[in-house]
């Protein structure tokens, strides 16, 4: 990691969202980005714009010249599992067999702190290599310790699951699990750039007492996140209906338990009805859309059109290890494919800028972190990526032939992967993301 002084200027092409609530991109071909470390020790963007306008006022600052490259906001992954790093690419006949045969057995290994710590180190190297600077994940101590050491903005939480789970993964009691959650909130939430998420795995693996207790904690700590899953798979939904016969719907279980509110993030949201979508929108809860996972596990298609018409907050996520890639480019590409296919007559083409927004400023908005991360406006934290449009021969050729910014971005989404990400800047520190990997 290369440290920079209190203020630093970067010259490159710049891509960002001046209005974080809108997917309208501003692209500055010859731009200047300035970062400054505040009294709290966190580096933030202090100026952004065209080089000619800003250069005189910042001529005294150390300058990194990245002309020929694009600086863009670091990607935000709204749902990923560090404990499933080694589950990726495990075939199964759908969600429930995949959980039982691969996922649960791998996750039991995380009782060993040495294993947890080694996987967390690999996981964060991998996130950085792909330009993901903020993520919402499950599992705690090794994760937070690594994230803190790397100055990252990360959200995570201990998984709550006190039934229908194997030995080694199942909580011994709801009371104990909730007591531990409260202690972990006190220990980690708001420490440096870390945030805690109350994390019931999904309704079938929690007793009513555990879900209700999680809801009480969510009410007592409104700035803590809630993360879980909803309406991913047909067998899962039938199971929930049997376990919670009085709930109006699968989502209704979480509503009944007090787990739907702002900063509640629900992965998948594939098989919702109109009432569910309205309820999520009303509560300010967000959907984490996981297209590579949903395609891989044959779970279904997220309906982007209905989400938008019901004003349901949503953003993109990898869902590794159900998801098949750490790469936000692969996730955006899969989201484009899914949006074209989605349920009924609602298929539509998502624009490149909208896809990019859903994985940066829009993802920060879904997490309640607008103006903090996922963007380059003044005041945002200095987490950004440096993309090389010449990274591969094919990408270089396609970009040279593009007629517009949209076409260039679309080429990156379809043809891009970690090779496109040349540097990652986290909290004002430049990471050499390819140095630690020989492959
Ligand atoms: N439902 C319950 N647990 C999981 C998980 O780990 N991944 C996915 N995709 N769905 C789940």
Task: List its traits.
binds guanine, seven-stranded mixed β-sheet, 16 strands, alpha/beta, TIM Barrel, nine-stranded parallel β-sheet, 439 residues, 2 domains, globular, Urease, subunit C, domain 1, single chain
Query: Treating each run of at least 4 consecutive H or I residues as one helix, how many helices?
Result: 16
CATH homologous superfamily assignment of the largest domain: Metal-dependent hydrolases
Q: Which regions contain 5 or more consecutive residues with pLDDT less than 50?
A: none
CATH structural fold name of the largest domain: TIM Barrel
Number of structural units classed as domains: 2
Overall geometry comes to globular
Bound molecules: guanine
- Proper CATH architecture of the largest domain: Alpha-Beta Barrel
Radius of gyration: 21 Å
Please write out the topology.
Layout: E1 7-16, E2 26-37, E3 43-50, H1 51-54, E4 63-73, E5 75-81, H2 95-108, H3 113-129, E6 132-138, H4 141-149, E7 153-157, E8 159-160, H5 174-188, E9 194-200, H6 208-220, E10 225-230, H7 234-243, H8 250-256, E11 264-268, H9 274-283, E12 286-289, H10 291-296, H11 304-309, E13 313-316, H12 328-341, H13 352-358, H14 361-366, E14 384-387, H15 393-400, H16 405-415, E15 421-426, E16 429-431
Parallel strand pairs: 1-4, 5-6, 6-7, 7-9, 8-9, 9-10, 10-11, 11-12, 12-13
Antiparallel strand pairs: 1-2, 2-3, 4-14, 14-15, 15-16
């Amino acid at each position: 990691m290369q440290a920079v002084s209190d203020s630093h200027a970067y010259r490159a092409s710049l891509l960002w969202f001046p209005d974080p609530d809108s997917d309208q991109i501003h692209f500055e071909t010859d731009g200047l980005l300035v970062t400054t470390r505040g009294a709290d020790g966190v580096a933030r963007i202090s100026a952004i714009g065209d080089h000619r306008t800003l250069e005189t006022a910042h001529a005294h600052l150390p300058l990194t010249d990245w002309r020929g490259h694009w600086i863009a906001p670091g990607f935000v992954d709204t749902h990923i599992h560090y404990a499933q790093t080694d589950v990726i690419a495990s075939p199964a006949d759908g969600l429930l067999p995949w959980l039982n045969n691969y996922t649960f057995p791998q996750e039991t290994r995380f009782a060993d702190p040495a294993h947890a710590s080694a996987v967390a180190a690999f996981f964060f190297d991998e996130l950085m290599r792909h330009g993901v600077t903020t993520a919402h994940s499950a599992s705690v101590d090794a994760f937070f310790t690594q994230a803190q050491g790397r100055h990252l903005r990360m959200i995570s939480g201990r998984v709550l699951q006190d039934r229908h789970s194997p030995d080694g993964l199942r909580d011994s009691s709801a009371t104990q699990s909730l007591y531990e959650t409260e202690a972990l909130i006190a220990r980690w939430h708001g420490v440096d750039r870390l945030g805690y998420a109350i994390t019931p795995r999904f309704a079938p693996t929690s007793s009513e007492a555990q879900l209700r207790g999680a809801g009480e904690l969510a009410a007592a700590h409104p700035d803590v996140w809630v993360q879980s899953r909803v309406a991913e798979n047909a067998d899962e939904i039938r199971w929930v209906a049997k376990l919670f016969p009085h709930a109006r719907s699968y989502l209704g279980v979480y509503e009944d338990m007090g787990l739907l509110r702002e900063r509640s993030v629900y992965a998948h949201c594939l098989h919702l009805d109109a009432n569910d979508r309205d309820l999520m929108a009303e509560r300010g809860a967000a959907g984490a859309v996981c297209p590579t996972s949903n395609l891989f596990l044959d779970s279904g298609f997220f309906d982007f059109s209905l989400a938008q018409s019901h004003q349901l907050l949503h953003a993109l996520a990898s869902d590794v290890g159900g998801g098949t890639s750490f790469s936000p480019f692969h996730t955006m590409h899969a989201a484009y494919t899914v949006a074209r296919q989605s349920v009924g007559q609602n298929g539509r083409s998502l624009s490149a800028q909208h896809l990019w927004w859903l994985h940066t400023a829009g993802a920060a908005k879904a997490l309640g972190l607008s103006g903090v991360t996922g963007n380059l406006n003044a005041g945002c934290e200095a987490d950004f990526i440096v993309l090389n449009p010449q990274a591969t021969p094919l990408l270089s050729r396609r970009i040279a032939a593009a007629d517009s910014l949209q076409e260039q971005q679309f080429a990156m989404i379809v043809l891009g992967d970690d090779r496109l990400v040349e540097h990652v800047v986290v909290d004002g520190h430049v990471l050499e993301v390819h140095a630690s990997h020989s492959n």
